Amino acid sequence: MACRKCKFVTTGKVCPVCKSSDLTPDWSGVALVVDPSHSQIARTLGITEKGKYALRVT
Ligand SMILES: [Zn+2]
Predict the structure, then answer these.
(1) Predicted TM-score (pTM) of this structure
(2) Does the pLDDT at position 13 exceed 90?
(3) The domain that contains 13 carries what CATH number?
(4) CA distances from 16 to 13, 33, 40, 56, 57 (A)
(5) How far apart are CA 40 and CA 21, in angstroms?
(6) Per-residue confidence at 17, pLDDT binned at 50, 70, 90?
(7) Three-class secondary structure assignment of 1-58
(8) Which residues, by Cβ under 5 Å, contact ligand 1, an ion?
(9) Residue 54, pLDDT score
(10) Which of 16, 18, 24, 57 has the most other CB atoms within 10 Å of its CB?
(11) CA of 34 to the centre of ligand 1 (A)
């Protein structure tokens, strides 16, 4: 499942990053962010927490 708000990928029912329950199984592509402050992908997606993120969420 991927969070519609911050695109974080989680197996739970609530997003651990933004605490949103607005999750969707319809997502594609994955970006693994290990160092958000030095990652270009993280900057582009507006990611501040490390973890797994979906590139596209519908
Ligand atoms: Zn979220």
Answers:
(1) 0.86
(2) yes
(3) 2.20.28.90
(4) 9, 15, 22, 19, 17
(5) 27
(6) very high
(7) CEECCCCEECCCCCCCCCCCCCEECCEEEEEEECCHHHCHHHHHHCCCCCEEEEEEEC
(8) 3, 5-6, 8, 15, 17-18, 20
(9) 96
(10) 57
(11) 17
Question: pLDDT tens digit string along 26-57?
Answer: 999 999 999 999 998 889 888 999 999 999 99
Number of separate domains in the chain: 1
Domain holding 52, by residue range, is 2-57
Distance (angstroms) between ligand 1 centre and the Cα of 31 equals 15
Distance (Å, rounded) from C-alpha 12 to C-alpha 33? Answer: 19
Give the pair of three-digit tokens for residue 27: 């997502």
Calpha distance 22→40 (Å, rounded) = 26
